[in-house]
Amino acid sequence: MQVLASKIIVAGTGGTIAGRAAASADNIGYQAGSLSVGDVLQTLPRQAMDRLVEQGVYTSWEDVAQVDSKDMGPQVWALVLARLRQWLADLEVRAVVLTHGTDTIEETAWLLSTLLETHKPVVMTCAMRPATAWVPDGPQNLLDALAVACDPQARGVCVVASGVVHAAQWVQKVHPYQLDAFSSGDGGALARVEEGQVRWFWKNEEKDHFSIDINREPAIEFIVDNRSPWPRVEVVFSHAGATGHGVDALCEPREGFEPLRGLVVAGTGNGTVHEAMDQALRRAHGRGVLVWRCSRCVNGQVVHAGGSLDTRAKDSPPALWPAVALPPFKARLAMALTLMGQRV
Ligand code: ASP
Question: Is 215 inside any structural domain?
């Protein structure tokens, strides 16, 4: 019989789940990342924690960072990745629950799931209301995340919010305010958490369809090392009346700025690009900038009609920019990781 490790690390990075407002009626005017994740854990009902102990599980907590996730980026990712690698290698550790702000949780989740080849669960969670709200959602989300972390079917990185378990690949924040702010779009949810029980629809690995030629180890070393700036990759949107001027401006060298290495164009519909934007992208490509396209549509992904993702196509502009089956800001990370991997 397999004996499961008994320790769950609850790690905090800030966000609204650790947010504090001056008044409990205030769900908006708060400071994200003001409380320790240990304080948030303290708000969970004693019986719930006792139930974990009955299952032979004990928790320990650590604040890895305290940020509003609108400001998430390479510095915190370096810390989180380094700590996760240590924890996941520890035989005593069964799972990690990672709290995060809702604004960019999907980006961190995608990054971690792409880089960490782990069967141990890394369950991310968050909240839409601060911890000081009359009716905060953070404690329930944290409880649900712990239930997923304890579940023997849980694998790899996922996001738990509002009773739904999302795959890192698919999850997106789709609402700025309502409690149920996340969607897995076409992909659908992995599971639901119902009264502490997890009802699975899919296994996490079955949902990870997207594969890209990322050289994991060099990318991880690059991030954890945290000494060189990330390859500069920007996202631009195509739209009616586009001029491409923004693309030209991004390509201009500026003192104190890293040279532009890549552009992800969030195209209209099935990744189509306005002709003026396309001309500007061709000029960028001529200056050595890698160009990929995806769709600005919230659901679905670009359906390839040629122009498959060939990250080596540098010489002549392709008739169609290579398409990537990710939303724009995950595609941006995919490109940055690809460029990091190519450096070595
Ligand atoms: N701005 C906050 C953050 O992302 C929002 C939240 O957590 O809901 O940290």
Answer: no
